[in-house]
Amino acid sequence: MIEKQVSRGIIRTYFDKLDKCLELDVAIVGGGPSGIVAAYYMAKAGLRVALFDRKLSPGGGMWGGAMMFNQLVIQQEALGIIQDFGINYEPYEDGLFTADSVESTSALLYHAVHAGATIFNCYSVEDVVFKDNVVSGVVVNWTPVLREGLHVDPLNIMARFVVDGTGHDSEMCRVVASKNGIRLSTDTGDVIGERSLDVAEGERQVVEATKEIYPGLYVCGMASSAVGGTPRMGPIFGGMLLSGKKVAEMIIERVGK
């Protein structure tokens, strides 16, 4: 009966997909543009990568452009990444380009999956696996379970590296620092918190702040801004894309060694 076949097809293939991701090279927490870009480049390099996003539709704030005007701005430095993903763009002025935010976000997700990354939506990462003072995986649960405050234990997924791409909240860095009494690689040893908007400095510093923040834990995108105390930059997305590519290149080099 087709009704049973439909259910069985979903259940069997989903659990096969999940089973293959119980041990990863990289677990990315947060499905904003930097995390998706990182997933794409790492998967393309042959790494086992899964991205976990708590929302039904991964993509972070990129969908909405600015104030729900679904256009976004990219600077010259990030144009090569836009071209890698086949996104349409138009020259604007002073080395800036505009693109449709819905097309851009869709393209990032499409190409990341086709490169070999696995994307899990409706997943919240509530903790990390912390072994021998190294971040060694993630602890996941359904987003509705946590939202409703249900007492349901999570599952564990092991990973050689974890990337915090959770945006302004920098959730993984906060969890690691607060639960384990360790110092992050910041001026204060903790999450500093992002500064007020400065587009030029924000775009430059968000890429500079993309790094391994604690053994096994990397940070990218707005999470790196929040952790490192750099300015926010508003609806210009080149820094997000460049940060995602940078963290991917750093981890690819580590795995290669």
Overview of the molecule:
The protein is of the alpha/beta class and 257 residues long. It has a single domain (24-59, 106-256), classed as FAD/NAD(P)-binding domain, CATH 3.50.50. The protein contains 9 helices and 11 strands. The relative contact order is 0.18. The mean pLDDT is 97.
Compose a concise summary of this entry.
By secondary structure, this protein is an alpha/beta fold. The protein is built from nine helices and eleven strands.
Radius of gyration: 18 Å
Largest sheet: 8 strands, mixed
User: What is the β-strand count?
Assistant: 11
The share of residues in extended strands comes to 15-25%
Structural class: alpha/beta
> Average pLDDT across residues?
97
Number of helices: 9
N-to-C span: 52 Å
Segments where pLDDT lies below 50 for 5+ residues? Answer: none
According to CATH, the fold-level topology is: FAD/NAD(P)-binding domain
CATH architecture: 3-Layer(bba) Sandwich
* CATH class group: Alpha Beta
Q: What's the helix-strand series?
A: HEHEEHEEHEEEHEHHEEHH
Total of domains:
1
- Sum up the overall morphology in one term: globular
CATH superfamily: FAD/NAD(P)-binding domain
Q: Share of helix among residues?
A: 40-55%
List the defining traits of the structure above.
257 residues, alpha/beta, FAD/NAD(P)-binding domain, eight-stranded mixed β-sheet, three-stranded antiparallel β-sheet, 9 helices
